[in-house]
Amino acid sequence: MGALLAIAGFEARQRLKLLSTWVYFFAFFALALLWMAAAGGVFKEAFVSFGGRVLINAPRQVALSSAFLGCLGIIVVAAMMGRSVQQDFEYEMHHFFFSAPIPKYAYVFGRFLGALATLAVVFSAILFGTLLGTALPGIDHARVGPYSVAGYLLPYFHTLLPNLFIFGAIFFALAALTRRMLAVYVASVVMLIGYIVAPSLARDLDYKTLAALIDPFGTTALIRLTEYWSLTERNTLQVPFTGVFLVNRALWSGFSLVVLLLGYWRFSFVATPAGRRGQARADEQAAPGGAQQTASAMHEAPDFAARSLGVLLAKSTWLAFRESVKNIYFAVIVLAGMLTLVVSSLDLGAIYGTKTYPVTYMMLELIRDVFALFVLVVTTFYAGEMVWREREARMAQMMDALPVPGWLPLA
Fold first, then answer.
1. Residue 351 β-bridge partners
2. What is the pLDDT of residue 300?
């Protein structure tokens, strides 16, 4: 147990020293401030509505704000949780940990708990932002009620912390087993399916409870629990940890715990796991033909003319495109997007059980609701993957030494 706590403390301290950790913290803080400013009427053209005469700092509204803002942090959870274990393999530090006299459970769960504690600090910025946001200049004070400590702490413990554990456990297990970050980012996209599909199903009265259960973020369950509250209840009552909301939290937390334990069981505490067909076989099968081709390629006269830059740009673009789509991860993302669109369109034209015609505005709303966040997340992680690809393959220095302009690899 002492080794586990030592590794967890080391991981948390190292993470809290990184600039990126505090960039995430202040980004969430600023986002929460803007959210409350929009809810309080500071911006005339952009606003967040909880309904008429609803206090923006009432417990229910704070819980919804924390849930919605926390959904945007799935990429942050993926990055911090995945890197907590994947970085050891990237920098070849796992040899030192695996040869040290520490048990497997101390290494795995120590890394996990350290990253989880850091994420808990980062996402606490949402609470501070929603609290201080009500004091911004221009806020309509008629929409600000009395403050409640429990109204801010309960959403943190009921929504944000469970979400950090749910997604963190899944991402950590994937990073530990695959030793790659791309699998973690793809999993974050797949997890968005529940968040995107749930509101579509909730439009049908027969599927409201199912929609509340399949949302891993718990947002739909929270709305389902409080949707029939009166105005007075929405302005005064704390959100109870009961009903479909409790079932949702227990269901997804249990699933993530099983994934984490399975990941621990399958994790190989050796440098090169058995069954991983790695570098040794590739080195043994290095054929002389490859050396001959390299030698013949060296006799080709290099072309440094400006006209060659267009050819290089086209070839590098095609290479980047091919490397991005020619793998299992891209296929998973495409299938996830198709599945999301199909499931969301099952009740197309139906509004709370009433059949209507699927006219143009409904089709546009379907595409917007399904792919708005989906495209944002996919674009974010693929942009990072393309920029970081050479570094992960340890070819960045060779690429930097090539006689090409600096703008060409980025273009």
1. 354
2. 60
